[in-house]
Amino acid sequence: MDVADDGRIRTGTLWTGIAHAFTATIGSGILALPWCMGQLGWILGPFVLVSFAAITYYTAIHLCDCYRTPDPVNGRRNNNYMGAVRALLGPRNVLICGIIQYSNLWGSMIGYTITTVISMAALKRSISCFHEKGRSARCEVSANKYMLLYGAFEVILSQCPNLEKAAFLSVVAAVTSLLYSFIVIGLSSAKLISSHFDFKGSLMVAHQSSMDTDMPSSTKIWHVFQAFGNLAFAFNYTTILLEIQDTLKSAPAENKVMKKVTLCSIGSTALFYISIGCTGYAAYGNQVPGNILSRFYNLLWLVDVANLAVIVHLIFAYQVYAQPVFAVHERWLGSTWPTSFLNRIHTIKITFIHNFTIHFTLGRLLLRSIFVIFTTLVAMIFPFFNAVLGFIGALSFWPLTVYFPLTMYTVQANIKRGSSTWIVFQVLGLVSMVVTLISAVGSIADILENRKHAKLFHIDQL
């Protein structure tokens, strides 16, 4: 029996791993893919998307071998990303890695909050206004109450003990993500068919790739840079790869199973991304918005189903990113004050449900609730869909997706300096660092520009 250090039993399989991974990769970034194609054009857009998928897969399969050290099959387990960094690269790198990784996970929670609330508001606007008054009606919907409702729901779900106990959440999230992905592809394809396959868009980068054709050239360039970050966010997977791998049973070997999980999840999501990005851009060209669902007006009931699927998916996907953040803070709380009343386990029996009990600590209850509330407030202050996603993707791509995994594998596999593999790692790292820098610059520039015109605690419909 596989018993973890915290007492839980590892029961994960290939299929539960795929569910977690699929939930982590297919997320809110998928709705911005056609917009990214609009910024990069037909030549560079698909090439960059496929390149991000290939790079993520290449580094992820090397990271799978770093779950156990020094031997990838029989070595000591590293329960999370930071644990692998500590074991292979030493404590000096742990602090930097931890700050970047958990900032990325927290940023993803912010991005998921924004996206979910936008879909909630869009669903409300469609049901209460468009269905009755037509698509040309002007309907104002305040998103603040939906933001608070979403935060309250996540406070409840946050009390789920750990990621392995949340496996059913990932299954639901994976199914709903497939649902709205197929709806977006179907609606975009229908638009193309109705226009007799009149493919729109441009070959050139930043060539009127905005709904505002009077936009300054400098802003268009920032949007090109930001699109790189959005595409990087769409493959935001390696940050929780080892946490997912830590849920797997040891037979067969975790690294072999996780490589299959990685191939299935990244391969399938890449096909979805290409389909959604290209069909959406071909259908609407340079007029494609940041959130593709906001461009569909026909078959409103199907758009409503897609928005509902987005809401359900991101409610549960939020927890896939939140649980590792909760875990690291709770380990710190337990090691700092091990005898505190905050760490005392309380049990509540639900009498009307047979043999159902709830175990909790005051530390978990308070810490997780405060963290979710704070995240919700930050999302209300910075409600910029594309800019936030771009910045999160930029923050994580080079250090977490490329540098640390390849550096750890270099130590794990004893890759010799100057060898062909070492040279490939260095070139890939350099290219990825440049992408991260330009993506961060573009996203920060867009956030600063949006802040000039934004209203506090107000989310614009995209």
UniProtKB/TrEMBL annotation:
It comes from Acer negundo (Box elder). This is Amino acid transporter transmembrane domain-containing protein. It comes from the Eukaryota. The keyword Cytoplasm does not apply. Keywords: Amino-acid transport, Membrane, Transmembrane, Transmembrane helix, Transport. The chain crosses the membrane at residues 12-33, 39-60, 166-187, 221-242, 263-284, 296-321, 365-385, 391-411, 423-445. Residues 11-446 form the Amino acid transporter transmembrane domain. Coiled coil: none annotated. One of its GO terms (cellular component) is membrane. One of its GO terms (biological process) is amino acid transport. It is found in: Membrane.
